[in-house]
Write a structure and sequence with these properties.
globular, alpha/beta
């Protein structure tokens, strides 16, 4: 399922952690999301925004992010849970993307500081990520 979101600012994409712990992700099952942000101001880091989007839609294959220009992240995951396996985060009744993520490909992130924040975010928790 694909979905396109348009926001006046990135504030609507940064979901507080206490909210995430008590609600089911509203876009669970959407695997392609395109986000347009129309605000010229930059209030949040790309990592905060991405973290919120991953909660909204925890099964992303592709995230296209448009603020000034189009940036894309592609995700690949390990195989689905076997019958004997349990959810990796017992507080959540769905598969957590953090523990099943195998690789991330970053496309068209021109600002090296933003790109480095993404690399640190994914490398800290995951295996090597590709770069294009």
């Amino acid at each position: 399922m694909a979905l396109e979101l348009t926001c006046k600012s990135e504030q609507g994409l940064v979901i507080p952690k206490d909210v995430r712990e008590h609600l089911f992700p509203p876009l669970y099952g959407a695997n392609r999301v395109k986000v347009h942000i129309h605000s010229p101001l930059i209030s949040y880091s790309v990592v905060d925004i991405l973290d919120g989007i991953f909660w909204l839609s925890p099964q992303l294959d592709t995230l296209s992010y448009f603020k000034f220009y189009l940036k894309t992240l592609e995700f690949s995951y390990e195989d689905a849970l076997g019958e004997d396996e349990k959810f990796c985060c017992t507080s959540q009744p769905w598969n957590c993307w953090r523990h099943k993520l195998k690789q991330v490909k970053i496309h068209n992130f021109k600002h090296t500081e933003e790109k480095q924040k993404l690399k640190n975010y994914f490398c800290h928790k995951h295996r090597y990520l590709g770069d294009n």
